[in-house]
Amino acid sequence: MPTTKWFKFLYGLVLLLIAVNLAVQVPFIFQPIGVAFSTIAPVLIIGGVLYYILRPLVGLLNKKLPNALSIVLIFLAFAGIVTGLIMFVGPILVGQITQLVENFPNFVETAQTWLNGIMQSNWVAYIQNEQAFQEFDTSTITDNLSGIFSNMSENIMSFFAALFTTVTVIVIMPFVLFFLLKDAHRLPDNVLRFLPKEQVGEGQRILTDMDETLSAYIQGQAIVSVFVGALSLIAYLIIGVDYALILAIVAMFTNLIPFIGPFIGTMPAVFVALFQNPVMALWVILAIVVIQQIEGNVISPNVMGRKLHIHPLTIILVLLIAANLAGLVGLILAIPSYAIGKVVVQNIYRLLRLRYPQIR
């Protein structure tokens, strides 16, 4: 049997595919495992992200206070901040969402009027003789949008199921986060117990490297996204764009998507400004360009650095796959998930090589 590296890789891949196929054939054994994983995974992922965000604050308070008391004080402060946001920002956000929903039919009607005007203009008159455009009816846009809203009634049960899951995660999350902040420092010692004594030092360096990389990425992404959201909100308020808070929140979350994220986050603001005043749309585009220059040249390099080394082609392929699998949510979560997963897998492989030197 060949002993080359690629043959061993392909051999292992075939065995893995066979195991997956057998798992599919025995659903009564593996289905509960899948359900358990899908239930626990969101809690652990969100808890891990919050752990890395709050850990520096816990470490700062631990210099003066006991660990448990520091965590409780941070939880109380966090609860106070969330309560304050709900009290002061919540009504504004709800009002803007309500106004946006109420004005949405007007947006559709205006867009259809613009489209009809474009289709009836002289410079596209000759195109209307084509068969494809003879069959084109701009009213189908309104019909399709109406169909989307009518189908929402069919998903009411799914909505409430997702709402119940979300509420459950919110209730459980503080307890998971508390124990992560309190006891996570014991995890490296439990991992190092499986290594030979002469490899413990190298194992400790690997775990430290993984921890520092994950911490830099998660904290950096959070800081950069908040900066982009805050700058976008200030710019929209200065320009006078409607629904400034909603649009800034969209910009904050879509900034997690490399390359196309700023474009996706800009489009809603441009469309809203376009309905108000075409000149305002140009100001929005200019503001977003300035914000992205500040983010790309000042904030990101100083906050995050270049620790992950993800090739641009890899990012594009991951985004394409994620968009087809989970739409906008997949685009937002794809690169952070890939980056974290890459760091975890690489370092687990390094630890396995220490434990089993025959692995190459």
Short description:
This protein has helices at 5-25, 27-61, 67-88, 90-119, 131-134, 139-151, 156-183, 187-192, 200-239, 244-254, 261-276, 278-303, 312-355.
Determine the strand fraction and express it as a percent band.
under 5%
Largest sheet: none
User: Over the alpha carbons, how many angstroms does the gyration radius reach?
Assistant: 26 Å
Mean pLDDT metric: 75
Number of strands: 0
Order of helices and strands: HHHHHHHHHHHHH
Query: Helix coverage percent of residues?
Result: over 70%
Shape: globular
Low-pLDDT ranges: 130-136
Structural class, judged by helices and strands? mainly alpha
Number of helices: 13
Alpha-carbon distance between the two ends: 17 Å
Q: What do you see in this structure?
A:
This protein is an all-alpha fold. The chain contains 13 helices and no strands. The chain has helices at 5-25, 27-61, 67-88, 90-119, 131-134, 139-151, 156-183, 187-192, 200-239, 244-254, 261-276, 278-303, 312-355. α2 packs across α7, α3 (67-88) runs antiparallel to α7 (156-183) and α11 (261-276) runs antiparallel to α12. The protein starts with a helix and ends in a 5-residue tail after the last helix.
Features:
360 residues; mainly alpha; 13 helices; 82% helix
